[in-house]
Specification:
By secondary structure, the protein is of the alpha+beta class. It is built from five helices and 13 strands. The chain has helices spanning 16-23, 56-64, 127-146, 152-166, 244-255, and strands spanning 3-14, 33-39, 42-48, 67-75, 91-94, 100-106, 173-177, 182-185, 193-197, 200-204, 214-215, 222-225, 228-232. The strands form two sheets. Strands 3-2-4-1-10-9-11 form a seven-stranded antiparallel β-sheet, covered by helices on one side. It has a six-stranded antiparallel β-sheet with strand order 5-6-7-8-12-13, with helices on one face. Strand 7 and strand 8 form a beta hairpin. Helix 3 (127-146) runs antiparallel to helix 4. The two termini are 21 Å apart. Mean pLDDT is 91; it is low at 252-257.
């Protein structure tokens, strides 16, 4: 699978040490790395389809230091989709209002009819990109139906509906952002952790550094802004439990065997 890291804070915080530890896990997740940093309303996305520990570019970026108020990071272990730039997280898509949505995924989609149409419209061939395309299409439908009346609470409801629909039968650990809010979701036990302290919230597939880490609440969409949790969705029943035979059959299908 993959690993996720994210931070939301009221003020800029230095995360260089946490990122170095996070990217050191690329020995196990060697098929690409990516980051998305938000600063003053602007977004900067960087990614490479190479192992993070072998990237000269990433090494230089880390040596320069990271001070951020909101960011996401990803290391990939390819399951579905070739190891190439177009399949490297994060994935970015604008909705019809011009808002940019950025998504990173740790998991696998085994079954979902609502994602199948995007096989013919995506740039790459990952299930993760299809999640974003579906999310943005749902946002666009509401924007077009409600024109200027589509407010932030309805945006939250669409995101919550998407994770509720996609969770059953699939591993759906996500961090994504609309450029204003950070959205967090997990539906598998022991696969995403949170550390909260003094207006800062950190998320990671595995606990990093010092401090007290707890599991992210399962099967609920969480939304953060400036280090504060501002929304928690209703709990759904789409818990994912790993099935080795299901995974094996999926891989065989994609390999053409």
């Amino acid at each position: 699978m993959c690993e996720l890291f994210a931070v939301s804070a009221g003020e800029k915080v230095r995360v260089t040490g946490l990122l170095k530890e996070f990217f050191s896990h690329s020995l196990e997740h060697s098929n690409g790395w990516g980051i998305a940093v938000y600063d003053g309303g602007t977004q900067n996305v960087e990614r490479e389809p190479v192992r993070a520990s072998l990237s000269t570019y990433l090494k230089n970026r880390l040596e320069g230091g990271f001070e951020v108020s909101c960011m996401m990071a990803h290391i990939r272990k390819a399951t579905i989709g070739d190891v190439e730039y177009r399949n490297t997280h994060p994935f970015v898509k604008r909705d019809v209002s011009g808002r940019s949505w950025t998504l990173m995924h740790n998991g696998t989609i085994f079954e979902s009819g609502v994602l199948s149409p995007y096989l013919h419209h995506q740039n790459g061939n990952t299930d993760s990109e299809r999640i974003l395309l579906y999310l943005v299409d749902r946002i666009n439908e509401n924007l077009e139906d409600e024109l200027n009346s589509f407010d932030v609470n309805e945006r939250f409801q669409v995101a919550e509906d998407v994770v509720r629909i996609l969770s059953p039968g699939n591993k759906l650990n996500l961090v994504f952002s609309d450029g204003e809010y950070l959205y967090i979701h997990k539906n598998a036990a022991g696969t995403l952790y949170i550390r909260e302290e003094k207006g800062e919230a950190y998320f990671s597939t595995r606990p990093l550094g010092k401090g007290s880490w707890n599991e992210v609440p399962q099967n609920q969409l969480l939304i953060y802004k400036n280090g504060m949790r501002i929304y928690i969705g209703e709990k759904h029943n789409g818990t994912y439990v790993e099935n080795e035979e299901q995974i094996r059959m999926l891989y065989l299908g994609y390999s053409g065997l």
